[in-house]
Amino acid sequence: MANLIAVAESQARQLLTTAFHAAIQKGLLPQGEVPPFTIEIPADTSHGDFASNAAMVSARAFKSAPRKIAEAVCESLDLSATFFDRWEIAGPGFINLFLKDLWFTQTIDFVLEEREAYGSSNYGNGEKVMIEFVSANPTGPMHMGNARGGALGDCLADAMSCAGYKVTKEFYVNDAGNQVAKFGKSLESRYLQLHLGEDAVEFPEDGYHGDDIRERAQEFTQIHGDAYVKASPEERQKALVDYALPKNIKKMKDDLGKYRIVYDVWFLESTLHESGAVQAAIDALSQKGMTYEKDGTIWYKASSFGAEKDEVLVRSNGIPTYFAADIAYHYNKFAVRGFDRVINVWGADHHGHVARLKGAMDAIGLDGSKLDILLMQMVRLMRGGEAVRMSKRSGKAITLTNLIDEVPVDAARFFFNMREPNSTLDFDLDLAVEQSSSNPVYYVQYAHARICSILKNLAAEGIAFNRNKAKLELLRTVEERELIRLLARYPQEIIEAARGYDPARITRYTLDLATLFHKFYNSCRVKGEEEGLMQARLALCLAARITLRNALRLLKITAPEVM
User: Fold this and answer.
1) Which residues contact 479 (CB under 8 A, 6 or more apart)?
2) Are the C-beta atoms of 405 and 146 separated by less than 8 Å?
């Protein structure tokens, strides 16, 4: 697929490298090794489309002033058969290269040819990647952290797929262990309170206090009445969990579906215990001398692999810990299902778990460096300029369901993906529902609708795009060239988003693209120009619409044609 930014950058690097060697052969430079140098796009492209510090970093190697080196190199530059038509030396020795008209015309042609495929590449070379994200406990509603993790994880997965990785999206369901035991006791207390009275049954101090627990207990009562009041606690809790847990998991799937997230795999923790995978992982660590027993408890030597302290794998009562299951789960990802790389999107409060889990992969005979943990900072909801107070413990948190009932899904996904994961995010509830250019998602969508309006109005007058009549070389204004440069950058932005695990790059890109299109629209008429220029600007509008629509589709945000 076309990536003319990468092609031009590669050409620039090769041009300069070849010119260095030519200058040495001509005796313009002494013998020496050319050190690594950078090729970058200047903030002000009037100084060049690409700029290099090659002469600056070579001063010591060639024992000469950078500007003198730049002059020798540029004298040996051969720009034929490249996208560049001229060069200049700036300041103390920066080498600036300027693109030919051909590069700009080919950029538009590539976008128009590739259409929905524009932006995709084979950069990832089919590497098999799993991204696990959200993975909220199914013991209660999903909250703001899950909403942000959902948007980030889903957009990262789609960016990586677009960049040529083979991606699997996975939700890990914690349907075993202490959380589920606490869930059962909480349900049991509410169930018994319905039949015996709230004063007669004490609610567990560390139980789940949310209204959802009461609702599940009431639903269970409507089906079974008081049949389980006299049952044993074990039987009663199991019946309540067996009823409520699948309901909660289904609600998670439904809510995430409304949020436009569909997983490839929902993986149940309980299957690891039932299949013996957890015990097998513990045994494998023991065989490698990575465990020891103390007072009936089995410990993993986590401190031998970078963690601050050793970790319990099996409690003295014989029940494996969550960490033991986590090791088995990640062993399954790598050794059983054969993923080349695994990415987990976690809340920042899990930072202490990163080193010990990566170390456990090394300890069990895998490669911990292939496990990447993306830590996500907290979300602060704002309304009226003030933080919205929340308490997950009391059940008064704003849930994902609450959010998408109040805020359009487009806005939620856009806002949660506006900043890189390691940045704290303020989510302005008032701004998210505002229909004005102050709302960033509205601003971007309006750019798409504006392009559609231009095309529709021209079509109503019998004017249709005709590539054969479009003289793309006439697109020479600053606004036109800026817009074309940004269109060309889209495939590379996806690659950078995938490589840096930063899907917010795509969101920011759509804002930049909308800004440059509005700037172009306000400066350059489409209708009323001579045919060749009108058709060229029509081509630019079409290319901008294709690119903007592709980027919004990747973010799973709608691209309206009318607003």
Assistant:
1) 516, 519, 520, 523, 524
2) no
